[in-house]
Amino acid sequence: MAICQSYTGEWFPALSTSVIRICFLVTLILCSPDLNADELEELSVTAVDGEYSLQVAVVLNAPVDYVYKVITDYKNAYRINPAIINVEILPSGRDDVVRVRNLSEQCVGPFCFDIAWAGDITETSDGDLEVKILPGLSDFVSGSAIWRIHPQGEHTSVLYQSKLKPAFFIPPVIGDSILKNHIKNDTLETFRRI
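User: That's the sequence. What structure does it adopt?
Assistant: Structure tokens below.
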């Protein structure tokens, strides 16, 4: 399978949940026969001064219209992220902005807690999606993201970049490592579900 052969990242231990989403073992995700990706070109997570940056580049074995529809089905985000337990579409005061707030249940080992995320989502003239985190409605101090979704023949090229700074305490050293692994695992699970 191309994705298993092209993935050059490290193997991670199984972790039950993430601050962003819940996912399964990386090996299960990477080698799952129903993964819709032809090629995972890049997956990186970095942490600097409490801010986590994620970059994913992948080619999905699906047409661009389908991928776009799934990603922008905000009310049903739980379909690609099973950690999400509630989604609200809030008034944004602007016709060109969709304001989304979701609540997800996150667990680390036996400890579970809820995380609120809210953001304003705008479609650019190029068809990209730009996201700005709303700190007053979220458990994040700051954050942003961009989805670049473009056709590549009968497939779809997706580049996703995000930055998040949690408002809650992350234990130094081990906390960063656990969170980065969760983010990677969660991201792979989301793209597998798309």
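Helices lie at 2-6, 26-30, 64-71, 174-193.
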